[in-house]
Amino acid sequence: MSKTFIIEAVMLAVHGQLMLPGQPVTYIIPYTSIQELYELQAGSEPIMLEEEDDGFVKQMIGELITFFEESFNKKKIEKALVAPWRKSPPLPINENVTLMVVLAIDTEAYGEHFDPIETELILSSMKEQAPILTDQFDLIERLIQAEIPVQAFDVEDFEFAVEGDNQV
Q: What is the mean pLDDT of residues 27-34?
């Protein structure tokens, strides 16, 4: 059975190990985080501290954008964009990784403490009963402080999250 995680699209470009799990994983990605990939690719600000790493991550972002723009995948994503909280059909990446895109809606429910994409991650996690996977330790801290009823894992704990019985 596949483990499900809620994640921003850029995490897949930054953390290559997420594309090579030891068992089947499904990543649910809010559509707005896919749109953010275009901004990150076009932006002049570095994403990573090291120039070499930054170039590699920007290349991976380009590959993700190309994947999402492939005709067949684009049609699947467009099916999710017809109604709030609708998910795309599965977009297989490899034998162990499947992506699904969700048209998450920021209801401003957590706008005081979280930005719009973080709010979409939270609401998607609640709706899907799946943990958030992030590299933003401050996000995890704010989730705890605000007593948001979701589970979140740091990317560094990815293998533990995949292996354990951690569904919300």
A: 96
